[in-house]
Design a protein that fits this description.
CATH architecture of the domain at 7-44 in chain A: Orthogonal Bundle
Order of helices and strands of chain A: HHHEE
Order of helices and strands of chain B: HHEHEHEHEHEEHEHEHHHHEHHEEH
Shape of chain A: flat
Low-confidence stretches of chain A: none
Strand order of the largest sheet of chain B: 1-3-2-4-6-5-10-11-9-7-8
Radius of gyration of chain A: 23 Å
Number of helices of chain B: 15
CATH topology of the domain at 3-242 in chain B: Amidase signature (AS) enzymes
Strand content of chain A: under 5%
Structural class of chain B: alpha/beta
Number of helices of chain A: 3
Number of strands of chain B: 11
Strand content of chain B: 5-15%
Low-confidence stretches of chain B: none
Mean pLDDT of chain B: 96
Largest sheet of chain A: 2 strands, antiparallel
Mean pLDDT of chain A: 90
Number of strands of chain A: 2
CATH superfamily of the domain at 3-242 in chain B: Amidase signature (AS) domain
Distance between the termini of chain B: 20 Å
Distance between the termini of chain A: 51 Å
Helix content of chain A: 25-40%
CATH class of the domain at 7-44 in chain A: Mainly Alpha
Oligomer: heterodimer
Chain lengths: ~100, ~475
C-alpha cells in the first residue's frame, strides 16, 4: 500500500501545476485526492508482474502523411487571439526578474 | 421529426431548410431559458447556412445527406471565428482560427449548426454541473441533471432543439448523458472519427460521437463525420463504416454476452430498476434470435480506478498549454511564471484543478510506478479480457449508467461519488472499443434508462444492428 497523499504533497503538486491554493482549498483537495487514490488501492489485488503497459489503444506506429503543401493558419488570425502581441510575436512579462 | 425525415424533405424540395431551421430556433427560444443547453445559439449563422442549402436545392446541386438538418455542437469542438469555451473561464472569448474536421464534414453534408452546447469544464464531469457558465437542466425533469459531460448536447436533442448533436466521450461523456436524457449516444471506435479540432482532455481516450433521437439518425451522423483524416495521426486509415444499410438486419444468430461484473452482481451502486431494464433488453435480443448469456469480463471492475489515474495524468499534460501566453485568459503579473500561475488559478474551476493535481501527482517521481505505471498495466488486462470475451461473443451488454438522472446538487460535494457514474462506460474507452447507449424503458421514477451495447474495435455495424432491435422493442413497450 502506497503512503497516503498529504497536505504537503498537494501543495507541492499545485506548485508544479502552476496553481495557487488557499488553506481551505488545500484541506479540501487533500481529502478528495486521497479518496480517489484510495479507490485505486483496489489495483493492489492484481498480479501485474508480467503484464506490459498499454499507453494507447491503437497499434499504429510511425504514422506518415504525404509532404504536400496546403493551407496553414493565418498569422494575423492566430495573433489576434493572444492577450498581448508586439511586432508579430507573443508578448509576455519578463521571464527572469520583474518588470521595472 | 427525425433527421432522416427532415433531410429527405429538404432534399426533395418538399420543405425549405430555412423553415426547418426556423422551427428549431423557435423551439430553442421558448425552451432554452429553462434548460440552458447552449453556451451560444447561432441563429443568424444558422439561417444563412439554411439559405445556402436552399440555394443548392433550387440550383439542382446535391445539398448533402444531412441537408438542412439542425445540429448542436459540444462547445469543445473548434469553430472558426466562433467562440469555443469548453465551458471554462480560461477560454472565454477565444475565437479558434480553424474548424474541427467534424465541423467541416457536417457543413459538407449540408447540416446546419444551431449552437454550441454546455459541458462540464473541459469535459470533466458526469452532470454538466462543473460548467463555468451554469448548469444544464434535464428536459424531462428540470430539477435533475442531464448527465455529462456532453449534457448540453443530450439536453438539446431531448428538448427538440436539434435532432442531431455531437459530443465527446473520454470515460462515458456521450453515453451517460444520452442515457439520462433518453436519447441515443454513440462512442465510436478510437480513431474512427477525427479528433482534429477537439480540445484535448485525455488524448488516448477521447472520441467524438453522435447524440440523436433515433438509432438511424446516429448511423447517418456517424457516416457523415467518420473516416480517415490525415490531420489526426491517430485516425484509422479507413473510410467510415456503412451503418444505415445494416439497420434492418436484426440479431438472428448473434452471440451476445451480458457482462456479469457490470450488471449488478457484485458491483455496488447499480440500481434495481436499471438491472430490470437490462434484463428485459437481454430478453428482447434473445427473442429476436440472438443467443444471450451472462459472461465474466473480470478486469472491467478495475477500469474506474485505472481511468481516474490515466485520464487525469493525460489531462495534466494536455492542460499545461493554458498558460496565458498565446490565447485565452491572461491575469497580469510582474513576471511570466507568476502570470502563468495567476491565469491558471483564476481560469480553471475546481474539478479541473483537482484532475490536474491528481495527474501531476500520479506522474511525479516516486509515485509514477505505483499509480500511472500500474494503471497502464491494468489497461492491458482489460484489453486482454475483452479480447477473450469477443472470442465467444459478437457483442456485450451492460447498463450505461448505474442510476437514472439524479437531482441537481446531489453529488457535487463528493467527487468520488460522481466518478462512480462512469463505472460501466470507462472500460470501452480504455480498450478503444465502440459502445452505445440506447434508451430502453424508464426507471421507478419515470426517468429514462439506457442500455449499453459494446462491440470490439470496428464493430459498429453489428452494434447498430442490435441497437435497432432494442429501439423498435422499446418504442413498442
Amino acid at each position: 500500500m502506497t503512503e497516503r497523499i498529504t497536505r504537503d504533497h498537494v501543495a507541492h503538486v499545485a506548485d508544479l501545476a502552476r496553481l495557487t491554493l488557499s488553506d481551505a482549498e488545500l484541506d479540501a483537495f487533500t481529502g478528495q485526492l486521497a479518496d480517489v487514490l484510495d479507490h485505486a488501492a483496489d489495483l493492489e489485488a492484481l498480479d501485474l508482474t508480467d503484464v506490459l503497459p498499454t499507453a494507447h489503444p491503437l497499434p499504429l506506429v510511425n504514422v506518415f502523411r504525404a509532404d504536400e503543401p496546403g493551407p496553414t493558419s493565418d498569422r494575423d488570425e492566430v495573433l489576434a487571439a493572444a492577450p498581448a502581441v508586439e511586432e508579430e510575436q507573443f508578448r509576455v512579462p519578463p521571464v527572469l526578474g520583474e518588470e521595472p | 421529426m427525425s433527421a432522416r425525415g427532415l433531410a429527405a424533405a429538404v432534399r426533395s424540395g418538399e420543405r425549405s431548410a430555412r423553415s426547418v431551421v426556423d422551427e428549431h430556433l423557435e423551439t430553442i427560444r421558448s425552451g432554452e431559458p429553462e434548460i440552458h443547453a447552449f453556451n451560444l445559439v447561432l441563429a443568424d449563422e444558422a439561417l444563412a447556412a439554411a439559405d445556402e442549402v436552399d440555394r443548392r436545392v433550387a440550383a439542382g446541386e446535391d445539398p448533402g445527406p444531412l441537408a438542412g438538418v439542425p445540429v448542436a455542437l459540444k462547445d469543445n469542438l473548434c469553430t472558426r471565428g466562433v467562440p469555443t469555451t469548453c465551458s471554462s473561464r480560461i477560454l472565454e472569448g477565444w475565437l479558434p482560427p480553424y474548424d474541427a474536421t467534424v465541423v467541416e464534414r457536417l457543413a459538407a453534408a449540408g447540416a446546419v449548426v444551431v449552437g454550441k452546447t454546455n459541458l462540464d469544464e473541459f469535459a470533466m464531469g458526469s452532470s454538466t454541473e462543473n460548467s463555468a457558465f451554469g448548469v444544464t437542466h434535464n428536459p424531462l425533469d428540470p430539477t435533475r441533471v442531464p448527465g455529462g459531460s456532453s449534457g448540453g448536447s443530450a439536453a438539446a436533442v431531448a428538448a427538440g432543439f436539434a435532432p442531431l448533436a455531437l459530443g465527446s466521450d473520454t470515460g462515458g461523456s456521450i453515453r451517460q448523458p444520452a442515457a439520462l436524457c433518453g436519447v441515443v449516444g454513440v462512442k465510436p471506435t478510437y480513431g474512427a472519427v477525427s479528433r482534429y479540432g477537439l480540445v484535448a482532455f485525455a488524448s488516448s481516450l477521447d472520441q467524438i460521437g453522435p447524440l440523436t433521437r433515433t438509432v438511424s439518425d446516429a448511423a447517418m451522423l456517424l457516416e457523415a463525420i467518420g473516416g480517415h483524416d490525415p490531420r489526426d495521426s491517430t485516425s484509422i486509415p479507413e473510410p467510415a463504416a456503412s451503418l444505415t444499410e445494416v439497420l434492418d438486419r436484426g440479431v438472428e444468430g448473434l452471440r451476445i454476452g451480458v457482462i456479469e461484473e457490470l450488471s449488478g452482481n457484485g458491483l455496488e451502486g447499480i440500481a434495481d430498476d436499471v438491472r430490470s431494464r437490462l434484463g428485459e433488453a437481454a430478453s428482447v435480443l434473445d427473442t429476436a434470435g440472438a443467443t444471450v448469456e451472462t459472461t465474466s469480463v473480470p478486469s472491467t471492475v478495475y477500469g474506474l480506478s485505472a481511468y481516474y489515474v490515466i485520464a487525469p495524468a493525460e489531462a495534466s499534460s494536455n492542460l499545461a498549454r493554458y498558460d496565458g501566453v498565446r490565447y485565452g485568459l491572461r491575469i497580469d503579473a510582474p513576471n511570466t511564471g507568476d502570470m502563468n500561475t495567476a491565469t491558471r488559478t483564476a481560469g480553471f474551476g475546481n474539478e479541473v484543478k483537482r484532475r490536474i493535481m491528481l495527474g501531476t501527482y500520479a506522474l511525479s517521481a516516486g509515485y509514477y510506478d505505483a499509480y500511472y505505471g500500474k494503471s497502464q498495466k491494468v489497461r492491458t488486462l482489460i484489453v486482454q479480457d475483452f479480447a477473450r470475451a469477443y472470442e465467444e461473443f459478437d457483442l456485450l451488454l451492460c447498463p450505461t449508467a448505474p442510476t437514472t438522472a439524479f437531482p441537481i446538487g446531489e453529488k457535487t460535494a463528493d467527487p468520488m461519488t460522481m466518478y462512480l457514474n462512469d463505472v460501466c462506460t470507462i472500460p470501452s474507452n480504455l480498450a478503444g472499443h465502440p459502445a452505445m447507449s440506447v434508451p430502453f424503458g424508464v426507471g421507478d421514477d419515470g426517468m429514462p434508462v439506457g442500455v449499453q451495447i459494446l462491440a470490439p474495435a470496428m464493430g459498429e455495424p453489428t452494434m447498430f444492428q442490435a441497437a435497432a432491435v432494442l429501439e423498435s422493442a422499446g418504442s413498442r413497450s
